[in-house]
Design goal:
Chain B: Keywords: Cell membrane, Hydrolase, Membrane, Transmembrane, Transmembrane helix. The complex is a heterodimer. By secondary structure, chain A is mostly helical. Chain A has twelve helices and no strands. Helices cover 83% and strands 0% of the residues of chain A. In chain A, α1 (7-30) packs antiparallel against α2. Chain B has helices spanning 2-31, 38-52, 58-69, 71-79, 86-138. In chain B, α1 (2-31) packs across α2 and α1 (2-31) crosses α3 (58-69). Chain B folds into two domains: 1-69, no CATH class; 77-139. The chains are: A mainly alpha, B mainly alpha.
């Protein structure tokens, strides 16, 4: 069964993806339960449907890849929040830079060390390296690491869900005095999901999380070719 | 209805504009063999225009905010590729979850502690320079 032979099925998959996403957003707006968070609910439901219907991935992605294509323009859209928050960077340049550097180094370093410790095959290990930054950046960086875009997208989602579920607990355990640290922690470790959580804590936390997430993504894309050479 | 349309049209136009800018920066990056990918090149160009004041952020705000708000929709499709990797996850799934879980805890704890320290140092330094400047002015 190939995609060209099933143009209507491929189109239906694109529409289904949008419908499941819209449904997840609607559900989460009504019931703020973790299981309804679109980041968790939408992929799980969609994978369930695709598996149950026995649709092969090439057919599914034939038209749905146009959604994925939108990640390109989304990369540029990050210019607006960075510009809005330039005063925060100007006031605390060293703190923001420290958060970005620590986040990138620990994100890539911990994935690399743990993947080795757990003897994961290279394809998985390479796809894990960029998992802690936002998807548009992670999917660009994974090309440099020689990982798979699909696996990286999955690991980014799992990281986000994990960060969303454990963030508050970690905040309660760590003796943090500044709002900056709470925001940077959430943005660096679990990108968009962490930033959403940080916005719930307060405005400053949200801004710092968003900045740390975006700048860490850019920094990772820039250093990925160098890191790939070292880590092999 | 017309109010919704008034919001929808500029958003759509700005999203198309961002898409066109992305196509251009991606094509440029390919053409010059840039080591920096097109997306980040375009982001840097756009940010420079905004910071120089040559472009008003309001001209792209709606489109950019829409793209960022709906970003999840754009990366669900590659996640569905898990259906292709079922055998892999059956053998490596638990170890993968352990790597992601432990790794994320490392990033959280490490980043938070580093930023907490550096922030206190930076604030102290800022206060010190402010006091010195104040003294220089008053004496």
């Amino acid at each position: 069964m190939n995609a060209a032979a099933h143009p209507w099925l491929a189109l239906a998959c694109l529409l289904l993806t949008v419908a499941v996403y819209a449904c997840a957003k609607w559900l989460y707006a009504r019931h703020r339960a973790v299981w309804f968070a679109p980041l968790l609910f939408a992929p799980v439901v969609l994978v369930g449907i695709v598996l149950a219907a026995g649709i092969p991935y090439p057919v599914y992605i034939a038209d749905a890849r146009w959604l994925m294509w939108m990640l390109g323009p989304t990369t540029l859209a990050f210019a607006i929040p960075i510009h809005d928050q330039r005063a925060v960077i100007r006031r605390n340049p060293v703190t923001i830079a420290a958060g970005v550097l620590a986040g990138v180094a620990l994100g890539v370093g911990s994935s690399w060390l743990l993947a080795r410790a757990f003897h994961l095959p290279p394809e998985l290990a390479h796809s894990l390296l960029p998992r802690s930054v936002s998807t548009p950046f992670a999917m660009t960086a994974t090309d440099a690491f020689g990982g798979s875009r699909e696996l990286t997208a999955l690991f980014v989602v799992v990281t986000g869900v994990f960060g969303m579920m454990t963030g508050e607990l970690v905040l309660r355990l760590l003796p943090l005095r500044s709002r900056m640290a709470r925001g940077a922690m959430l943005g660096a470790a679990s990108h968009g999901a962490g930033t959403a959580k940080a916005r719930e804590l307060g405005e400053e936390e949200g801004v710092v999380a968003s900045l740390t997430m975006t700048l860490a993504g850019i920094a990772l894309v820039l250093v990925a070719p160098l890191l790939a050479g070292w880590l092999g | 209805m017309s109010r919704a349309l008034h919001r929808f049209v500029p958003t759509l136009f700005q999203v198309c504009l961002l898409a066109a800018l992305w196509l251009a920066s991606d094509a440029l990056a390919r053409a010059i063999g840039s080591p920096v990918p097109g997306g980040v090149l375009g982001l840097a160009a756009l940010l420079s225009l905004l910071l120089l004041g040559w472009l008003d952020a309001e001209r792209l705000r709606r489109g950019a905010e829409w793209l960022l708000a709906e970003m999840l929709l754009f990366f669900i499709p590659p996640v569905v590729a898990v259906v292709q990797f079922q055998a892999l996850f059956r053998s490596e799934g638990l170890r993968l979850l352990a790597v992601i879980g432990l790794g994320t805890l490392c990033v959280m704890a490490g980043t938070a502690l580093v930023v907490d320290r550096v922030f206190r140092w930076e604030r102290r330094r800022r206060l010190l320079t402010a006091t010195r400047r104040h003294r220089a002015v008053t004496t």
